[in-house]
Amino acid sequence: MSSTSLRSKLQVVIGLFFGLALLNIGLMMLIIRVQGGGALNGKIENRRYYLGDAEQYTEVTQAEYTLSRTYETISVTAFLVTIVANIAYSALKPHAIDQTTEPVATERETRSDSS
User: Fold this and answer.
1) Are 42 and 57 within 8 A, CB to CB?
2) Taking the CB of the first residue and of the last residue of the chain, which one, N or C, has fewer CB atoms within 10 A?
3) pLDDT tens-place string over residues 49-63
4) 31, 47 in Cβ contact below 8 A?
5) 3 state DSSP class of 108
6) Nearest-angstrom CA–CA distance, 28 and 13
């Protein structure tokens, strides 16, 4: 596999993950709006669970709160990981990903060839 082929495939995969992560963040924001808030902005008081949105709280069950918190945490983490992967990929020099199949000559081989 040539290095340009590997780079282009990596670029497509990273772009796809970034697009999916962005779509997931949009979906999460829509769900938060429909539910009346999110668990990351919510609170727990006296064994009662609330989703929060701009200092307004909506009471929910423990299961709804836990599901919301888990989904929000995973969504944000996935988005951040995708951004870091994109930055890391962009920072790599092209030769860092290149995979050559030619063996590298040792010093001894180089000396014997020049004799």
Assistant:
1) yes
2) C
3) 999 988 899 999 999
4) no
5) helix
6) 22
Asked if residues 10 and 89 have their Cβ atoms less than 8 Å apart, the reply is yes
Helix (H, G, I), strand (E, B) or coil at 87: helix
Quote the tokens at residue 44.
């727990």
CA distance 104 to 115: 19
Number of neighbouring beta carbons within 10 Å of residue 79 = 18
Domains of the chain: 3-95 (1.10.287)
Strands 48-53 and 56-60: antiparallel
**Lookup: tokens for 106:** 């040792």
57: left (phi over 0), alpha (psi -120 to 50) or beta: beta
CA-based nearest residue to 11, from 70, 86, 81, 100:
86
Global pTM value: 0.67
Q: Which residues contact 61 (CB under 8 A, 6 or more apart)?
A: 49
Per-residue pLDDT reduced to its tens digit, 11-44 = 888 889 889 999 999 999 999 999 999 999 999 9
